[in-house]
Design goal:
12% strand, DNA primase, PRIM domain, five-stranded antiparallel sheet, alpha+beta, elongated
Length: 432
């Protein structure tokens, strides 16, 4: 008890807690129960006094509010949107085993860096997981014409699902490098068949990044706050040294304030724009897969269709991207070309050559991952429709007199017209 009180009366600990508590709802825990909600922290001295009254830990909202004390149960989505100043992206990673959580956290950080995020906060949760934070100050102001502050909880849910999909093959490989599936089954008491999905090990059977739990007024343990069950502190750490983290550093007597979890002042405005676009693209892919059954069936040709018959938007896109939009272009081109009867090997080779024409080439690994993702899908998704403003118009390739629903429809009609004129004996490579 005295250790806890001494810890929470440390000025450096109070400074960090107060910094992240600004504009947030704070939950104060007294062993097994929480205090009144909503609550806030206003002064350094509040923390020490609450500890003397029996407070064991402090929890903070993911969202930032105009006046947290005005919050109450039963508020409508509209009311919550009016009260919300902003929100931070917090990826909550948990597993029964800290080492698995470490591996996952490292891969999430790599995935965020891959999406051009530089200001990343990481902390040990105090249990067996980690929290990763991107401040709102890094976000784009708008996404698809809507204020980003209003995109809660759908935006963090979409981002969490996108990141899970992005790291899944690497996570599976890394975990199986340190543990066999038999060992995992024994240590987790989960039957081997339940650890698999489509006959392959699914790492998310033992690691949680649950986007469905992200909801308004959701809270996490504050940095430099104690975990009641473990007696360990939720310590921030260097995002580049997660693998070196040792639980001894989280013991109350060993905790030093070396890193801050929340550093909005270091954010580069709009640096998370690509992350948001990729996440919503991924969500769209998932939704499109579900809708695909209702669409008119398109028979993928057995012979490759020549570029000569492609619509001008696709041909211009194949010339390279001169401004922002490379990753969206990959989705468009991969979706389109697979409907042209192109093999995935040729699609990948074409995209590799196309990548060299861009204003700044992407990492080849990203292109390979996207092509492989498409290859694994049982149902082939059509590219975005021609009137989708997030794609052709913003990519600068939109045909102003376009009368087609989708680029694939354009090719389908052209083939039909030429077959009627010349007969079906003419091969697709001959169309010009």
């Amino acid at each position: 008890m005295l250790d806890r009180i001494r810890f929470y009366t440390r000025k450096d600990i109070q400074k960090e807690l107060l910094k992240i508590a600004k504009d947030r709802e704070v939950g104060i825990r007294f062993n097994e129960t929480f205090g009144k909600r909503p609550d806030i922290l206003q002064f350094n001295s509040d923390i020490g006094e609450l500890a003397k009254q029996g407070a064991t830990s402090f929890h903070i909202s993911v969202e930032r509010w105009k006046d947290p004390l005005n919050l109450k149960t039963g508020l409508s989505r509209k009311q919550l949107d009016e009260f919300r100043l902003s929100w931070d992206l917090i990826i909550d990673i948990d597993s029964k085993f800290v080492e698995y959580s470490k591996i996952t956290s490292e891969l999430v950080v790599e995935a965020l860096k891959f999406n051009n995020i530089s200001n990343i906060g990481v902390k040990y949760s105090g249990g067996s997981g980690f929290h990763i934070l991107i401040p709102f100050e890094s976000f784009p102001k708008e996404v698809n014409g809507k204020e980003t502050r209003l995109l809660f909880p759908e935006a963090p849910q979409a981002i969490a699902e996108y990141l899970k999909n992005l790291i899944k093959p690497y996570l599976k490989k890394k975990i199986l490098e340190v543990s066999t599936i038999n060992d995992i089954s024994k240590s987790t008491t989960i039957p081997i068949k339940e650890l698999k999905e489509n006959n392959e090990f699914n790492p998310f059977k033992i690691i949680e990044i649950d986007s469905k739990l992200i909801s308004s007024r959701h809270m996490i343990r504050a940095p430099y706050s104690i975990n009641e069950k473990k007696g360990l502190v939720s310590v921030p750490l260097d995002p580049n040294k997660i693998s070196k983290f040792n639980l001894n550093k989280a013991k109350i007597e060993n905790v030093e304030v070396e890193h801050s979890f929340f550093t909005p002042e270091k954010s580069i405005p709009e640096e998370a724009k690509k992350l948001f676009i990729q996440a919503f693209d991924y969500t769209r892919k998932q939704q499109t897969t579900n809708k695909q059954e209702k669409r008119e069936e398109y028979e993928i040709p057995t012979q490759e269709i020549s570029e000569n018959i492609f619509p001008s938007c696709i041909r211009r896109l194949l010339l390279g991207v001169k401004e922002d939009g490379r990753k969206r272009s990959i989705f468009v081109l991969t979706s389109f070309l697979q409907h042209m009867g192109w093999s995935y090997e040729k699609i990948q080779q074409t995209l590799m050559e196309w990548n060299k024409k861009n204003y700044e080439p992407l990492k080849e690994g990203y292109i390979i991952a996207q092509v492989q993702w498409s290859k694994r899908q049982s149902k082939k998704m059509l590219p975005p429709n021609c009137n989708n403003e997030a794609y052709y118009k913003t990519l600068g390739v939109y045909c102003h007199n376009c009368k087609w629903k989708n680029p694939v429809n354009y090719v389908k009609i052209q083939l039909k017209n030429k077959e009627e004129k010349y007969g079906k004996h003419k091969t697709t490579d001959d169309w010009s």
